[in-house]
Amino acid sequence: HGTPAISGVTIYGLGGSAAPHDIAREIIYNLRKSSTEIEVVHADTPNPDLVDDKKLVMLCSFSGNTEETLHCYETIKPKTRLLVALARGGKLRELAAKEGIPFIQIPEEESHRAFVVQPRESVCLQMTSSLAFLAAVGLLAPGSEGRLDPNEFGFESEIPCLLRGWRQRF
Q1: Which of 37, 75, 84, 143 has the greatest count of CB atoms below 10 A from its CB?
Q2: Which residues pair with 61 in a beta bridge?
């Protein structure tokens, strides 16, 4: 087993962009597939001293323009290279593209079958996205009962290509 590449996961989001990740964390813990600490922070002023270069940080904002989440990005970015963003678009998508940060896209086209209007409507979508990403990373850690695996969640065939890429990166 050895020391995991990722020492922990911290997810930043507010309201409807934080709650889905609380649920995802509990699913992972209940499956007992990872003992990696997963923290969901519902705050706009992150403590950069709690992040280091082995901490995976997810920045979540339905719109991608949430000021608090963008502030978290600016505060945390210098502390870790393990960043991922989840949003519909906005400034967070622009920053991710500019900085080469993996970006999990919430559908923005009304014709997309998973399109929703309000953040609270996206709870299942964001939760599933979080589970898919964290499963791709693996989160294997001492004390776990195996590796967190995307197949446990029954994801569709279009997702595995993204998962393989994320696993290689992280």
Answers
A1: 84
A2: 87
The side-by-side arrangement of strands in the sheet containing 37-41 is 37-41, 8-12, 55-61, 83-87, 103-105
Q: Check pLDDT > 70 for residue 38.
A: yes
The residue type found at 24 is A
Q: What is the predicted pLDDT for the residue at 89?
A: 92
Q: Are 12 and 76 in contact (CB under 8 A)?
A: yes
pLDDT digits (tens, 9 = 90+) for 58-73: 999 999 999 999 999 9
The residues near 129 (Cβ < 8 Å, ≥ 6 apart) are 86, 104, 106
Q: Which residue has the tokens 């904002």?
A: 61
Contacts of residue 58, Cβ cutoff 8 Å, sequence gap at least 6: 9, 10, 11, 12, 21, 83, 84, 85, 86, 130, 133
pTM: 0.78
